[in-house]
Fold this sequence. Notes:
mainly alpha
Amino acid sequence: MHSSLTHLINLIQCLLIxxxxxxxxxxxxxxxRKLLLMMMILIIMITQN
Length: 49
C-alpha cells in the first residue's frame, strides 16, 4: 500500500471519529462506518490512478 494513501486513510478515520455531525456516528453500527470508510478509500484509489 502506498504511504500517501495510508496517510489519507488515517485522516479519513480521524474525521469519521471526531466529527460529531456525522449521522453514522450517532448510530453505534461499526459495520456502517467501516463500509463508508471502504467506499472513501475506493474513491481515493480510483482518483489517484
